[in-house]
Amino acid sequence: MQPIDPQPPQRPQADQSGGQPEWLRKNAPQGSSSGSESSDVPQPPQSAPSTAYPAAPYPGMPPGYPTAGYPAYGSAPVPPAVPPARQPRGLSPFGMPARHLWEIPLLIVVVALTALAYLFAALLLVFGNVNEYILALVFAPILIWFGRGVNYATQRVNGVKMSPTQFPEGYRMVQEAAARFGMAKAPDAYVVLGNGQINAFASGHGFRRFVVVYSDLFEIGGAAREPDALAFIIGHEVGHIAAGHTSYWRQLGMFLVPFLPIIGSSLIRSQEYTADNHGFCNRHEGARAAMGTLAAGKYMNTMVGFDEMADRAAQEKGFFVWIVNALSTHPVLTWRMWALRDRSRHGRLFWRPSPPPQLPPGRHPYGPYGEIPSLPPKPVA
């Protein structure tokens, strides 16, 4: 048997100053009423998890926009310092979408040529030298107004209008895109029978604007399960409206575009690049699948190698490649994919993209797809 300890361990006693045990007084914070000055026992560091974002911005973010990071678990995220609608326009998805740098110069040239054509037609009409082309120019305002009205009425009586109860996912995407671009009113949106065609367009009549998506293209957000691609396409079409491409006066000033082979088609291509910038700002994650759908259809869109096809923009060259792009109203797909991948510059209108002279070892020359930086790992509390 072990001998009994004559003096068992004593429990902590309260002192006369505060009535608290000694161990509690030693760990009390400074300024408390425990009466303890300091403790010789080292204490573990007490640090609360920080909710602040990193001080250094990530590449591609405009000045003034908060850098990406994970706040502490259970805490509210820090709101953006500047809303996207007040951000400077650029190619980054964080601010407002930029207009293609060639769009306005080409628009000025086309409008000037069209105005001269209207003046020339009016002079010929006064002097009695009239033919069908002169009449088309003279009555262009009425022809454009009539065509826009017929187009709008066709969608109203034949298309399925998106609403909170009819195609609600598409309706929500249209509302989100309009809000993202700072539009005061969201346009109407319709789904029409595509008969196998992959297409969508935006137009207007009077003060009304609308977007039309063919059923085969709209299906990629449903059965094909690519909602991000559908959001990119809807953002592209709503972007045409936000950029003023569907204005009656703009279409009146561009009446001669079909008769200006290189200049007219280049203006239309610059508008498509501008709309792509809007789609990228609305849902940049859907650019890859959207371009894959335009290249291979709604069933094989996920099988398209986006980077492999974009790389061919710098490889496919020659006079006929140049002429196909120059006469097209849309950028050729390889150039278009290149522009969506390389967000450091505007899409090429006339000359094929060129790769950098030397590739960095072990990585793609343009970094992550879409130049979206990866977020840091979530801190452990």
TrEMBL record:
Residues 171-248, 264-343 form the Peptidase M48 domain. Residues 1-11, 353-363 have a biased composition (Pro residues). Binds 1 zinc ion per subunit. Residues 1-55, 350-381 are annotated as: Disordered. Pfam families: Peptidase_M48. Its cofactor is Zn(2+). GO terms for molecular function: metal ion binding; metalloendopeptidase activity. InterPro entries: HtpX_protease, Peptidase_M48. GO terms for biological process: proteolysis. Keywords: Cell membrane, Hydrolase, Membrane, Metal-binding, Metalloprotease, Protease, Stress response, Transmembrane, Transmembrane helix, Zinc. It comes from the Bacteria. The chain crosses the membrane at residues 106-127, 133-153. Belongs to the peptidase M48 family. This is Heat shock protein HtpX. It comes from Nocardia cyriacigeorgica.
